[in-house]
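Collaboration report, partner site 2.

Our partner group contributed sequences for two proteins of shared interest, and the home lab folded both. The records are reproduced in the order in which they were received, starting with the first partner submission.
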Amino acid sequence: MEPGAGLGVDPARLRDVLLVEAVEALDQDGGLIGPAEREDADRRARAVLDGAAGPEEGAPLRFVEERARVLREGLVRARPELARLLRWAAAPSPPSAAVFLLAVLAGLGADRLEGSQRLNLLSFSLLTILAWNLVGYPVRALASLARRAGWLRPRPWGRLALWLAGAERLWAPRRRAGGDLGVAIHGRFLAGWGRHAAPVAGARLRAAVDLAAAGLALGVLGGVYLRGLVHEYRAGWESTFLDAEAVHALLGVLLAPGALLSGRAVPGPEALAAMQGAGAGAPAAEWIHLFAASCVALAIAPRLALAGWSALRARRLEADLDLDTASYPLLARALAGERGGGLRVDLSSYSYGLSVAAEEGLRNLAAQLFGGRAAQGAVRGVAYGDPPGAGEGERRVLVFNAAQCPEREVHGTFVAELVAATEPGADLLVVVDESTFARRAGIAAPERVAGRRRAWSEVLGERRVEAVFCDLEEEGSLPLEGARAALWTAAEGEA
């Protein structure tokens, strides 16, 4: 597996990894995870990795997971609030069965038919439920199309779910108990988990909303029919502004699904006119059946189907959770030490003697790029004008000095000969070290460095090779992503 590539990971183990990453990134003094604990975790994870049988591409994932598991065990013993944080992140949404049951109970008690035995067709709570669903589905479809077209930001449900589940005010006292470090760890973990879990949390929230809508409609219907068993309801309506024609048009739209499903036509304006007024009315059974059929067609069956689809999507997204180690430099560094077994890296510098600090930076860059287990020989110096010679490894790293002006006939020719001599499948990385040049440039360093970079890029680009520019002596500034982008691999027939 390539360094920095995504690793499919179990959600619980991903939470462990992200928690440990947050602690290691912020615990600069080693108060929570000391060097001894890190070394012990590396050793135990390496033992599991060495003893496991499986494909090589699964090794980085197993190492990261096991290392995080070992460190997490020590962390939660020392800081119980971190264990609570992990438990919260594991369940950011309520159980579906509980959501549905509560919605049904709420629906049973929501509609009391205005406390009388008269069914007002214009104030019946099912009218609102029908209108909500009739308008909601097109809006939902249009919003989905707009997100696909890039007109709306993606995953609003995911952001809302994580915000609702965050309970920041409830967590604040516990985080304050850990001081500023506890607050920072809490925030970094939530940010990392949110980036990975937002799609899952959003799908779960949508499933919960759809279940609640279906349960509410079912509860209201159940309440109506239960009370209808012991009471005789009569249907009627009153309105200051609407006449029978307008009421018929309104009910004709809202009850059309029920009319199609049950085969019952919506009574006409004449029948509605006879039902207008406080003292007027007709038996309500026919209207209740129409409302029930419409609710099944609009608010219950589609919502249950959407909830099931969202639940399945949440499971699929959870199964496809991915950890991109390139986004977490500390994880990439830990993984680098476990890669590269059996590889050889040839290091050379052209007309340039590396300082001790620069050589250490070069070796660190090669270890992070090719793996800490890759064998690195001595840095081979190449004199000005000499040919590249035969390399001794499958990976070759060549260092130029940015203080030298690039020459097509010298540096360009050397790179061309090196490319021609590289075996198919082998990698070549060209590094232009700016450690001495930046200091010599003085106050005009940015402009001069930029100009020198353009010169080197032009000469090397003619040979179809890119370079990574960096200060090898400056600790923590090694451009790993830039090195990956500049890495050149010889193809068949390249020579």
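Second partner submission, folded after the first:
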Amino acid sequence: MMAWLRRLRGTILIVIFLGVFFYIFSLNFRPPERMDVFQRVVIETTAPLIKALRNVFISTEETIKEYVWLRQTRRENEQLRSRVASLEEEITHYREAYVENLRLRRLLDFKSTTQAEMIAAQVVLHDLTGWFQTVIVDKGFRDNIEPDMAVVSDEGVVGRTLDISDRYSRILLITDPGSSVDALIQRNRVRGILVGKDANGCVLKFVRSNLDVQVGDLIISSGKDGIFPKGLRLGIVQGTFKDPVDLFQKVEVKPLVRLSALEEVLLLKRGAILPENLLGN
């Protein structure tokens, strides 16, 4: 019974609405005259409602359009950001390839200039503990690598081979306290032993206090230790300290090679002889 009443009420409301609509619509076909009371009541009652519904419809339409526009804009922004990120990644790859090409070209030029038998290797691991100044390269016994082979770059001496496996080798850098290189001051041939101090530098030991050593002097290998050929660049004198009661002066040296940024190196075959004019020695 209740369901039937609800259906009847809905039907009555529809009929009333349609009647009012057609009544208002029919007014357009009547000659102009003053509205009667019923007409005025209907117009005054329904017009605000229709106007309000129209405003709601317009507002809703604008909101929907704005929402769609915002979604589209957000999607386009995401696509643009993705494209920009992709382009930046490509630029990074191109820049990295360019820098690597420059490094390899310098290394190749150095190798052709020295005319010594060398083996190129890539650094695959830097010692991360801080206890030792060493790196691992991707060449080993299978590549004819032996212990105590001099390791260089186009900038100068890197170190020497220490431990060898089939495919890899550990390089002892010249900054390690366990490293020592027989060295000369290029300017006046003053001799000493270059010993590693820490990651930032080395010390040229056993230089008498009365000998002339100046900041900026170039230190090169003397070739008398049986490992490093004569004339390889080692570093630049950064400071000298003399103690009146000490027989030797302290000479601090900064390596020419940026050891923390090593990526490729050259391993010199034992007994390699470099040209006499190499690096001005």
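Feedback sent to the partner group on the second submission included the following. Confidence is low (pLDDT under 50) at residues 275-281. The chain has two domains: 1-27+36-115, 118-270.
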